[in-house]
Amino acid sequence: MRVHDSLTGAVMLLLGIGLLVGSSGFRVPIGQPYGPGLFPSVLGVGLGVCGIVLIIAGRRHGLPRRAVVLAPWTRSRRARRRALLVPIGILCYVAVAPTFGFVLTATAILSTLMVALDRRLLPSLLVALVSAAAIQLFFGGLLRVPLPPGVFFPGW
Amino acid sequence: MVGVEALAAAFGLILQPDVLLGVVLAAIFGLFVGAIPGLTATMAVALLVPLTIFMEPVPAVAVVVTVVATAIFAGDIPGALLRIPGTPASAAYTDDAFAMAKAGQVELALGVSLIYSALGGLVGAVVLFAAAPLLAEFALQFSSYEYFWLATLGLTCAVFMSAQSRVKSVASLLLGLTVASIGLDVVSGQPRFTFGSTELLGGIHFIPALIGMFAISEVLRHMTATSPSVRVAPRQIGNVFRGVAAVGRRHWRSVIRGNAVGVGIGVLPGAGGDIAAWIAYAVSKRCSREPERYGKGHVEGIVESASANNAALASAWIPTLVFGIPGDSTTAIVIGVLYMQGLNPGPTVFLERPELVYAVFLTFFLANLVMIPLGLLAIKSATLLLRVPRDLLMPIILLFCIVGAFAVTNSMFGVLTMLVFGMVGYLMEENAFPITPAILGMVLGRMVEEQFMVSMIKAEGSAMAFVDRPIAALLGLLTIVVWGWPVAQTLRGRIASLRAVG
């Protein structure tokens, strides 16, 4: 997804202004000349300047027909579906893993992704299960990372 | 300043079974990741960093050093066999390596690249060993003004060394610095930009952000790639070392020049092995007696740039260890790792924990020596490595990212942070915003702000205090020259064109 420079610049300018407004609200500690708002406001000015430069640079290239140009892959439905599976998979993990546990959730997400990438179902399930179990053993067992145990098979 | 006891203690720290095992495993991991096109050395480090939290400082640094060195070399393997550089640092001489392989010289191309990569790494390590303690002694006299300018100069170099648009690099850097300012303010303890979220009070941890920007964005790119993956024909690879020494004898000038360029570029903050390889290739072509053969399977350019990219890796650690200013994106990650280990980089670490510093130096020798036998193994099994189905690998990498981001703070917030930064990183790359300045900004943000605030409060608003001390003045001048130069050139161009019109 390519966004026109002028639009990116405008977003950046707004962000810079937001930083300036936000940092004006911080209290300056008594007896000190500068408070915690100083550095963020310097950054805000910098971002604002970058934004303005980008707006001007974008205008010089001429106004485009569209502000946002989608990448060629977005025309393929399969590629769109695959791309969406990454954030959806991560969000599913966050939502579901505490209930179903690490190994079950991870196996389901991994095998779905592999099948979406044109791998056959059975080998995918197998590879997914083995890698999820290996990561559980390594991170959960060896390094003692408290991976979500889940309510069905605690410990798995 | 080199204490014999410190050196002996450093040897003791390195020659531990867990360190040695870690180095060997890290070398295998680095070779694997580097040899697979699309997986970069930075990504290898990003995937490894969550594990280093569970290690002691010396093994943590040792595995990072080994992974980077081996991944940078292994990037040459798919370059020669498929004409796809495994890591960006190999891109400069991929055409030559591939042409040599096509002409039946695949052994020579890979052998040269292995041996001169290892040699470059060793030369860089010697320079690091010699130069860093001397510089550290000098740096002990620095005050907050010098550190402020050094950090600014370092970030400046990071902006100006990137090949893409300069405004976009600055913007990327400022965004990174802004992200670093989220959370409780270090000076007054006020929450900043947390929008009432308790999760954000502690700030945004750089590791999940880094995993997102370097690994998740890569997974996304693989998922959206519409071109089918390449097939590799099995190929027997013979004696890799035949003729390597003869190449060195014939092109000894290239070996020296490549190492010198690599070390020189590596020391500059913000420029690492990728840039060193490109510059070394360009220098080599200009100095060569047969420049017309470059790009068509000439070994000279490979010798020079393969030396340079590995030499740059070690010398990038000079500003990292001495000033706490990273030399490239991987040393930026390392600085974060060192801070987490309670080992703040800077000149005082050379006084307080000299044995740790020397142990870090020694890991470079170790990593580059281990690379020769294991690298040979990787070359021999190259066709096998290149046939690993990436459609199975990428989902596993995604799972690894999720667990790594979770393990840093043991909270799902880390996983969500990783997702957000992964999407942002993907969009930034699509729109030609370089990512490294943002990572540098995130890692260095707190330090820059602290030195800035201390300096401002000490100076009581007087700008002169920033340039009162001679070294501070020199560093300030340098920073201004670097910033002013392109502006002056643009202005001169404008005036010249106006004159031409008028």
Question: Can I get a quick summary?
Answer:
The complex is a heterodimer of chains A (156) and B (502). With 156 residues, chain A is mainly alpha-helical.
Description:
The complex is a heterodimer of chains A (about 160) and B (about 500). Helices cover about 65% and strands about 5% of the residues of chain A. Chain A is mostly helical and about 160 residues long. Chain A has a two-stranded antiparallel sheet with strand order 1-2. The longest helix of chain A has 24 residues, at about 75-100. Chain A starts with a strand and ends in a 14-residue tail after the last helix. With about 500 residues, chain B is an all-alpha fold. Chain B contains 24 helices and 2 strands. Chain B has helices spanning about 5-15, 15-35, 40-50, 55-75, 75-80, 95-100, 105-140, 145-160, 165-180, 200, 205-225, 245-250, 250-265, 275-285, 300-315, 315-325, 330-340, 345-350, 355-380, 380-385, 390-410, 410-430, 435-460, 470-500; strands at about 185, 190. Chain B has a two-stranded antiparallel ribbon. Chain B is globular, with a radius of gyration of 23 Å. The relative contact order of chain B is 0.18. At the A-B interface, strand 1, helix 1, helix 2, helix 3 and helix 4 of A face helix 9, helix 11, helix 21, helix 22 and helix 23 of B.
Element-level helix/strand string of chain A:
EHHEHHH
* Tally of DSSP helical segments of chain A: 5
Average pLDDT of chain A: 87
Give the rounded overall mean pLDDT of chain B. 86
Measured distance between first and last alpha carbons of chain A = 40 Å
Structural class of chain A: mainly alpha
First-residue to last-residue Cα separation of chain B? 64 Å
Number of helices of chain B: 24
Neighbour order of strands in the largest sheet of chain B: 1-2
C-alpha geometry of chain B: globular
Main structural class of chain B? mainly alpha
Widest beta sheet: strand line-up of chain A: 1-2
Largest sheet of chain A: 2 strands, antiparallel
Strand content of chain B: under 5%
Q: What is the general shape of chain A? A: flat
Number of strands of chain A: 2
Rg over C-alpha atoms of chain A, rounded to the nearest angstrom:
24 Å
- Helix and strand sequence of chain B: HHHHHHHHHEEHHHHHHHHHHHHHHH
Total DSSP E strands of chain B: 2
Uncertain runs of chain B: none
